[in-house]
Q: What sequence folds into this?
C-alpha cells in the first residue's frame, strides 16, 4: 500500500477500447518491487494524474487475484479524461492509492451473489466478479444482470461472452434501445428481475450504475424481499482528494472517499445530506 498523499509513477502497459468513448488502461508501477507488493480490494479506487492536467479518482476495474496489472476503465468526459485518452502505451501517469474501503469479500463467502450493473457501473463490479470467479468454489449461486443504453455502450463485450459461456453463473444483458442485429432483451435493467429467480434470503446484491438506475434497482430489490444490509452499492459523487481533506464528498458525518465509497443501503439511508 502506497502513501495516499504521494503519487507513484506508473506506465501504461496496454489499453483497449470498450466503447467509442470508454477505454480500459492497464497500468504498471515503474518500480517493479513496488508493483509486486501493491495490493488493493475490489471496490477501492485510485487517484490517477495526467501530468499537466490534474488528478481524479477512478475505480479499480481489475481483481487482486490477478496482480499482473492494475486496470481502470475511463469514459472520456472532460479535460483530464480527454488528455488520458490521448496517451499511448509506454506513457507515464501518476497513481495514488488504494483509497477507500472496498467490498468485503470475506463476508460474501458462502453467499449467493447478485451483481446488477448499468453502463459504466460495471467496472467497479468487474474486479469483484473476477475475484469471486477465481475462487468460485467459495461462493454460492452467481447472477450477473447488466444493461446499457445501446449494444455499442456495453463494456467488456469479450468478457460478457466469456461469462455467458460459463456453466457456473447466470448472465442476463439488456439495452434501453436496440440496434440492427441485436436479438437480446430490450428494456431497463430492472426488467431482468422478472427473467430470473431471486433468492433474497441467501443473496448479497451489489449494485453499481447511474444514480437513477441505482434508485430504481434498490427500490425493486427491497420490494422483492432483500434486506437493506444485503444491498450494497458505491457512492462516488463528487470525490476528489481521496483522503477526506477537501470536503467535496462530505455527506453528513461521512467522507465518501474515506469512509466509502462502498456502503450497504441501510448505511446510505442513514446518511444525512
A:
Amino acid at each position: 500500500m502506497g502513501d495516499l498523499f504521494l503519487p507513484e509513477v506508473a506506465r501504461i502497459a496496454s489499453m483497449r477500447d470498450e466503447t467509442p468513448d470508454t477505454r480500459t488502461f492497464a497500468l504498471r508501477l515503474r518500480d517493479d518491487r513496488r508493483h509486486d507488493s501493491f495490493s488493493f480490494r475490489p471496490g477501492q479506487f485510485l487517484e490517477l494524474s495526467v501530468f499537466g492536467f490534474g488528478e481524479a479518482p477512478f475505480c479499480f476495474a481489475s481483481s487482486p487475484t490477478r496482480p499482473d496489472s492494475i486496470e481502470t476503465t475511463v469514459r472520456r468526459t472532460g479535460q483530464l479524461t480527454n488528455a488520458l485518452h490521448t496517451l499511448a502505451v509506454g506513457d507515464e501517469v501518476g497513481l495514488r492509492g488504494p483509497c477507500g474501503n472496498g467490498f468485503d469479500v470475506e463476508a460474501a463467502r458462502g453467499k449467493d451473489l447478485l451483481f446488477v450493473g448499468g453502463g459504466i457501473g460495471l467496472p467497479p463490479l468487474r474486479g469483484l466478479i473476477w475475484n469471486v470467479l477465481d475462487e468460485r468454489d467459495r461462493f454460492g449461486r452467481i447472477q450477473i444482470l447488466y444493461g446499457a443504453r445501446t449494444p455499442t455502450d456495453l463494456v467488456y463485450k469479450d468478457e460478457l461472452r466469456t461469462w455467458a459461456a460459463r456453466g457456473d453463473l447466470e448472465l442476463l444483458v439488456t439495452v434501453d434501445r436496440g440496434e440492427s442485429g441485436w436479438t437480446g432483451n430490450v428494456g431497463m435493467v430492472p426488467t431482468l428481475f422478472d427473467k430470473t429467480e431471486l433468492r433474497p434470503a441467501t443473496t448479497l446484491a451489489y449494485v453499481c450504475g447511474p444514480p437513477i438506475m441505482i434508485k430504481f434497482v434498490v427500490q425493486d430489490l427491497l420490494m422483492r424481499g432483500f434486506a437493506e444490509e444485503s444491498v450494497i452499492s458505491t457512492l462516488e459523487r463528487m470525490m476528489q482528494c481521496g483522503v477526506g481533506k477537501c470536503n467535496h464528498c462530505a455527506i453528513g458525518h461521512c467522507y465518501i472517499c474515506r469512509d466509502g465509497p462502498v456502503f450497504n443501503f441501510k448505511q446510505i439511508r442513514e446518511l444525512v445530506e
In short: The chain has a mean pLDDT of 94.
